[in-house]
């Protein structure tokens, strides 16, 4: 899992049929204190997140297919699987 912040969305006029009707977002990995910690990348939205949200991103296909409930979506690898309410370090 990757902790990330949603930076923006992507609009596609033509895309693979597995992506039709699904929202693609730009996410920036962050540390526990929400400071950027890597390059931004694209992730499919599986939880109706939006710009500015702190999210959990899964970067392996099995989890993406489980979240979407479709084992045939072999082209989908990276998905947002949760919106984070808070982060605490003990």
Keywords for this entry:
90 residues, mainly beta, OB fold (Dihydrolipoamide Acetyltransferase, E2P), five-stranded mixed barrel, 1 helix
Protein described:
With 90 residues, the chain is mainly beta. It has a domain at 1-51: EutN/Ccml (OB fold (Dihydrolipoamide Acetyltransferase, E2P), Beta Barrel), CATH 2.40.50. The protein contains 1 helix and 5 strands; from the N terminus they run E-E-E-E-H-E. It has one helix at residues 61-68, and strands at 2-10, 24-29, 41-45, 54-59, 78-83. Strands 1-2-3-5-4 form a 5-stranded mixed beta barrel. The longest helix is centred in the last third of the chain and has 8 residues, at 61-68. The model has no long low-confidence stretch (mean pLDDT 90).
State the secondary-structure class: mainly beta
Rough outline: globular
Alpha-carbon Rg, integer: 13 Å
Number of strands: 5
Describe the largest sheet: 5 strands, mixed, barrel
Distance between the termini: 19 Å
- Residues in helices, as a percent range: under 10%
CATH architectural label of the domain at 1-51: Beta Barrel
CATH class of the domain at 1-51 reads: Mainly Beta
CATH topology assignment of the domain at 1-51 = OB fold (Dihydrolipoamide Acetyltransferase, E2P)
> Residue-averaged pLDDT, rounded?
90
Give the DSSP E fraction (strand runs of 2 or more residues).
35-45%
